[in-house]
Amino acid sequence: MKNKTLISVVGPTGIGKTRLAIDLAKHFNTEIISCDSRQFFKEMKIGTASPSEEELAEAPHHFIGNLSVEEYYSIGQYEEDALKKLNELFEKYDTVILVGGSMMYEKAVIEGLNDLPEADEENQKKLQEILDNNGIEKLQEMLKQLDPEYFSVVDIHNHRRLLRAIDVIWQTNKKYSEQIAVSQDSRDFNTIRIGIEAPREELYDRINRRVDIMMEKGLLEEAKSLEKFKYMTALNTVGYAELFKYFDGEWDLDFAVSEIKKNSRRYAKRQLTWYRKADDIHYLPLGYSQENFNEVIGYINEQFQQ
């Protein structure tokens, strides 16, 4: 019987996963591994809503601000690093917390990634030409036709993800979503998935408010300081891509901020689509009470006994 447990805290952006992960880490006197791929980058604190210094002090966190935007970091590297860290932590604790809304990064830790082919140079060259000549919209359209399931959950603004998926589909003649759905590695720990849910309108209101708070905290200045890296993969993401268009004079600031809100809501919708397919997530309500928290601790303790 597996005697170590990973509690994975999931849910859409802006719903309060950081707070729940800290509450669980404090209850079980353990540490937190982040699987939020945007929070890996130390220069992007405001736009990715990274945990504050006060939150980081409440419980030890790993994989927060551990990279620079100038570094390339793949999901395969993350899987390897996260499992290594997890094994270290399991020497000290019976329970560890995983938290983040990057769906594929959570999957990499709890299930493992499929053994996909290496990038094909010719395919990558063709796709890069399409991107350069026709823009990212053409790649989005191609992926939607080839694999609507993956298109419904991928970050469609991340050109690297689109290039990778189309390349693999071309090489294998199989949908990317089918190939990544096959778990290759069995894990030697149990996983309990805990989520937070809210009515969609309430979630969208929270996301809109959070963007306003980010702007108040200095997101514009943070994005300006990163403008020289805007072609790096890490910066090709919601909250930064829109402000770069403002700096380029394409959009005015109000429109750029409204686009950040819209794209954040769209990303949340993709996350909800992904999580809705899972039948192993135990949910708490948004703004959960002590009673709700006690109930989820009871649920976790029951799972320990199984």
UniProtKB/TrEMBL annotation:
Keywords: ATP-binding, Magnesium, Nucleotide-binding, Transferase, tRNA processing. Belongs to the IPP transferase family. Catalyzes the transfer of a dimethylallyl group onto the adenine at position 37 in tRNAs that read codons beginning with uridine, leading to the formation of N6-(dimethylallyl)adenosine (i(6)A). It comes from Chryseobacterium nepalense. Residues 36-39 are annotated as: Interaction with substrate tRNA. This is tRNA dimethylallyltransferase. The keyword Transferase applies. Pfam families: IPPT. The record marks 102 as: Interaction with substrate tRNA. It comes from the Bacteria. The gene is miaA. One of its GO terms (molecular function) is tRNA dimethylallyltransferase activity. The lineage of its organism: Bacteria, Pseudomonadati, Bacteroidota, Flavobacteriia, Flavobacteriales.
